[in-house]
Amino acid sequence: MVSTKNALILKSSGNPMPFVGLGLWQVPKDKAADVVFNGLQIGYRLLDNASDYGNEKEVGDGIKKAIEHGIVKREDIFVTSKLWNTNHKREHVRPALERTLKDLGLDYLDLYLIHFPVSLEYVDPSVRYPAGWFGSDENVTARETWEAMEELVDAGLVKNIGLSNFSAALIYDLLKYARIRPAVLQIEHHPYLTQENLIKYMKSQEIAVTAYSSLGTLSFQEFDGEYGQRALRTPSLLKQDIVLEVAASHKRTPAQVLLRWSVQRGIAVIPKSNKHERLVENMNIFDFSLTEEELRRISSLDRRLRFNDPAVFADLPIFD
Questions:
Q1: Is 115 known to sit in a ligand binding site?
Q2: Residue 124 lies in a domain
Q3: Which of 65, 103, 173, 285 lies at a CB distance of 3.0 to 4.6 Å from 57, suitable for a disulfide?
């Protein structure tokens, strides 16, 4: 089973979820299998993926290779995927999961998240897969989608269900009718966007939090238009004086300090890298601690600056 060492225990199921996982967003298809295999060989036991990333088949190839080589057993790893916006209708939820399971070569997921609180018109996979952020709004409520997610747990296809990119107000409403409570909320979270009130509320509800884009701007700089320009004109967190000073005092890299800042505050992280040395570096954050003053100073960088914002790329201000 997944080790409880350096892991969060999910309230809804009691399952351990590693504090540090391997994020697979923007990992190219031709590299995904090797990245996953190398990550599992290094010691990663959480893989964070989504159908929208377009690389689940290759990720599955990497998992299969690691199992065949005796590096892991299926029960040793925690695999996450996400339901895309075009599959929110009840009748589309299970087929979307089954496609993900087929691509990954797995019988079940450890965690399945609703990717965004946005429902778009259905796209048949034979027409376009991944469907992408195209098309008009679909008249589907979060309740309909969540109840379909709960049915996946009932069927034994998913161990835990959760949310991604949901606001506190939406979660507050969902908790009124949820038969199975969300195990995890995944959000953009870094020192430029600390979201302290949201995290405080999640902790009060015993919902674990996973941070994506923990290093800030890096994942967004390659995008066109304002979406990428916002990241390009923002100073890198890796070069902020506070982060550099803390890193020097602990003889660590800035990236390790930023990841430790999250983990030490009880938040899981899923950094990605195609480089072996970075994969190793991102795992090695459990043998040092930041002081309360260092945590506070890093948090003081907060600008409420969001990079993954549908208000910019889809004219949909879901976070406002």
A1: yes
A2: yes
A3: 103
